[in-house]
Amino acid sequence: MPLTTSFLQPLLAATAAESVNLAEAGPLILAAVLLSLVVIYFASKVGGEICARINFPPVLGELVGGVVVGISVLHLLVFSEGGPTEPSVLTTFIQQTAGMDGTVASVVANTASEVISVLSEIGVMILLFEIGLESDLEGLLKVGPQAAVVAVVGVVAPFVAGTFGLVTLFHVDLVPAIFAGAALTATSIGITAKVLAEIQRLTSPEGQIIIGAAVLDDILGIIVLAVVASLAKTGTVEISNVIYLIISSVVFLVGSVVVGRLLSPFFLGMVDRLTTRGNLLIPSLIFAFVLGYVAVILQLEAILGAFTAGLVLGETEKRRELEEQILPIADMLVPVFFVCVGARTDISVLNPLEPANRAGLIIASFLVLVAIVGKVVTGATVFGQPRINRWAIGIGMVPRGEVGLIFAAVGSASGVLSKALDAGIIVMVIVTTFVAPPLLRLVFKPETEALPTSDVAVESPPEG
Amino acid sequence: MPLTTSFLQPLLAATAAESVNLAEAGPLILAAVLLSLVVIYFASKVGGEICARINFPPVLGELVGGVVVGISVLHLLVFSEGGPTEPSVLTTFIQQTAGMDGTVASVVANTASEVISVLSEIGVMILLFEIGLESDLEGLLKVGPQAAVVAVVGVVAPFVAGTFGLVTLFHVDLVPAIFAGAALTATSIGITAKVLAEIQRLTSPEGQIIIGAAVLDDILGIIVLAVVASLAKTGTVEISNVIYLIISSVVFLVGSVVVGRLLSPFFLGMVDRLTTRGNLLIPSLIFAFVLGYVAVILQLEAILGAFTAGLVLGETEKRRELEEQILPIADMLVPVFFVCVGARTDISVLNPLEPANRAGLIIASFLVLVAIVGKVVTGATVFGQPRINRWAIGIGMVPRGEVGLIFAAVGSASGVLSKALDAGIIVMVIVTTFVAPPLLRLVFKPETEALPTSDVAVESPPEG
Questions:
Q1: Which of A12, A30, A339 to probe by mutation at the B interface, max B CB count within 10 Å?
Q2: How far is Cα B126 from Cα B403, in angstroms, rounded to an integer?
Q3: Mean pLDDT for each 10-residue chunk of chain B (464 residues)?
Q4: B47 compared with A357, residue with greater pLDDT
Q5: pLDDT tens digits, A200-238
Q6: Taking the C-alpha atoms of A24, A28, A31 and A36 in order, what is their torsion angle to the nearest 10 degrees?
Q7: B297 with A98: Cβ contact below 8 A
């Protein structure tokens, strides 16, 4: 195509592929998705099983498995994220086995990677729905004040310490310092909740405070991100947008729980009258997906909607039955999320032999320190609970996970961050994400053996 | 964008959307997928429940529900299928609620519809995997000769009668007549299998013959499609391609069953050693998806791979456990397939008030007649089974479903079909697909009440 500029080529390939009829193009996209899922499942199982054997949380293994198959090592699973990328090893493989030409292959690969992205997002929604089902709304409300303090301190402490330290110690300009400080405020509810479920501490008082605080942090994170993104873009903060986000998140959370509880007798009555397969599952998924949609439209996150739906349905008598049905669905979709988080993480910034990384690594050490200390201190703020495991709460707030990656992506896109600072943020996200699961398991360890909890999510026991 | 031609606009919008960072574009695609799933689930439950109440097969309701939300009526769920389309009602709704501009909205909608397409294809794979699990390999092999005769007669009879009738009665040219005749040969394994499972006759002798014949028909259909597509394109038949397809499908089916049975002790041993969640499900899905991928690469269909994987795993001691875990996953994904088949079907060609449709409807009446009679006669060919329900077998082969739609799509794309013939094929697909489920239920009815089968798939019983 000599008449078109190079950036148009994949797009023209898209028309070419679209004009190919359904019977020809569809199967190739499906084939690419199937192969990606095989790679994801393989990575999640190998990583998870190795971690389980050395007494680490399986979810850590899924993340590491994702890193191995992703952008950092094997390039089997690569997401374009907007920029032009090298074709992944998987694309090349599909292209050769299916005998496609290069442009069609790249369209197929891009579409397949979009599908995998959405599957991973549905996966984390299913995870949060499951966590919501297993959480206890009364218990969450009871620890609400403590969770709120933990959440707020966990945002303010690392933000202030990070921004101040970058400006005074590293002479970073104020706007990028604020941005980096903001990236320190995130908490990955997915990773913490998964670890808590794995060690069966989700419904412990510590678990409930962590989940409550992580949910609030998710909202605070969205607000902080909106503020700093507008600061980075325009140099000013749109107060009206901040107020909108605060009001909409409060209205959404309170509203969906209240309305959900009001409607749940109607819901149960309807479920009982349905006679076809999926009579409980499908209405529940409709509820979760509607709330997820509303959350996205309000510029919140879909996982908040899924979590709230789970919370409301967890209050009903159908809870156990629904938990059983969600289990295999979660087993199928949740690993997609964790492997994708790992696959998206570029660990090449961790290589100290690369001279360009060194400035970033020095800043990173500082950010990691602030990130961990700034969240661990939140454990000390829990009041009125003398026997609570404060270390567990503090450490439960540490992983930045996928939320941190979003901050890093927005930071890269905005252009306010220097290369060193950008790398430093990514390193901070990696270290906090990978260090928290084993630490969390460690601080919960003594109690786990002494005190079996009663009302917790039970892992599907492997048979035989 | 005044400088670009209009067909490039959605593509340029694609770059615009892709350059938007992950945190902004990703959620909108997710939101569109979530809303589409809500529409799909709603349609499937409303349709399915109504059909269950008037004693029709629920799957018919899912198809009709799909028609209602699809291209024919409400335009909520529209697939682009290569050509430029009107924005769906859903796209407009998302655009307004999320405040996107039109071009971004169309990119988001296209991506979401690709995701839904892939989900529906994974849905039918899960259905065939479930059917394979519940089928009995020994039983299938035992009725193999009968199934082979049914399959071959069910391809030859409607093909010869259809082609001959079109040439002699309607004076259609030979190539388009052969194409339309070929479209008559398809059998929708998905729809028949689903109805058989719903009435719990999947493992009856009739059910096994139908499934065996439908699987063989799927392969014959692929070969026939390859032949007529090449005939339509080049006017000649590539014998080498036909031989390749025959050999590859035989090698694939026999090979995957033989290799699968050889490897299954190793598979079970590995499953028993896994300790993390999904220890049985994930390796099983890897198996099904790998076989699905191989099938696509061999130019066969992914559902054949999934079916074979289910068949092999159904022979192992893990069958029951796996069936239980697949059930909710099937409940979640299978309706996506049936609703999408309905949504893709344009029933406007059925409107006799539209003068342009009349020629098509006359041809269609002939095609429907041949389509039904040509398959029903196959019941008479079953030998060595004196007490078999021959009507049930014949009717079980009638629905063309998604396979017929693919023939119609390839026919449209090839350009050899006249508008009337094209419409006639679509009407034939619609009528056979929608008529077969209630008929199948009817002919099985007397026995269902008299003779409860023992070893069949049990519907998840609605509680309360």
A1: A30
A2: 17
A3: 31 39 66 95 95 85 90 84 64 79 79 92 92 84 89 92 92 87 86 87 89 86 78 75 84 90 91 92 96 89 90 92 96 93 82 80 90 91 85 90 76 76 84 88 65 41 42
A4: B47
A5: 888 888 899 999 998 888 888 878 877 787 777 777 777
A6: -160
A7: yes
Q: What is the mean pLDDT of residues A415-436?
A: 84
Residues A265-276 pLDDT 10s = 999 999 999 999
* pLDDT(A173) > 70: yes
Answer whether A225 touches B (CB < 8 Å): yes
Q: Quick one: average pLDDT of A94-116?
A: 82
Asked if B291 and B306 touch (Cβ cutoff 8 Å), the reply is yes
- Please compute, for residue A160, the number of CA atoms within 13 A of its CA located in the half-sphere on the CB side: 8
Q: Is residue A460 part of a domain?
A: no
Q: Helices B281-297 & B302-314, crossing angle to 10 degrees?
A: 140
**A4 in reach of chain B (CB within 8 A):** no
Mean pLDDT to the nearest integer, A182-197: 87
Please give the structure tokens belonging to residue A80: 């374009």
Six-digit token string for A232: 């980075």
A435 shares a domain with A332:
yes
Same-domain check for residues B436 and B426: yes
> Is A56 in the same domain as A146?
no
Whether B161 and B172 share a structural domain: yes
Q: Is residue B458 part of a domain?
A: no
- Is residue A248 one of the residues assigned to a domain? yes
**Domain CATH for B354:** 1.20.1530.20
Q: Is residue A366 part of a domain?
A: yes
pLDDT at A19 over 50: no
User: What token pair was written down for A12?
Assistant: 């023209």
Write down the residue that tokens 């995997």 correspond to. B129
Range name among A5-19, A59-73, B365-379, B440-454 with the lowest pLDDT average = A5-19
Amino acid at A241: N
* Chain A CB contacts of B328 below 8 Å: 278, 281, 325-329
Which structural domain, as residue segments, surrounds residue B73? 24-117
Domain's final residue, options B117, B145, B177? B117
Count of structural domains, chain B: 2
Tell whether A109 and A160 lie within a shared domain: no
Contact A161, A95 (CB under 8 A): no
* Contact assessment for residue A38 and residue A335, using Cβ atoms and an 8 Å cutoff: no
* Closest to B279 in 3D by CA, of A447, A113, A49, A173: A49
Mutate which of B34, B37, B107, B416 to disrupt the A interface (most A C-beta within 10 Å)?
A: B34
Chain A's closest residue to B460, CA to CA, is: A277
| pLDDT number for residue A446 | 54
Let me know whether A313 and A232 are in one domain: yes
Q: What is the largest CA-CA distance in chain A?
A: 73
Which residue carries 């030859």 as its tokens?
B156
B122 CB burial (10 A radius; 0-12, 13-18, 19+): buried
B107 and B142 fall within a common domain: no
Q: First-to-last CA distance in chain A?
A: 59
**Co-location of B84 and B230 in the same domain:** no
Q: Which residue of B has its CA nearest to A34?
A: B289
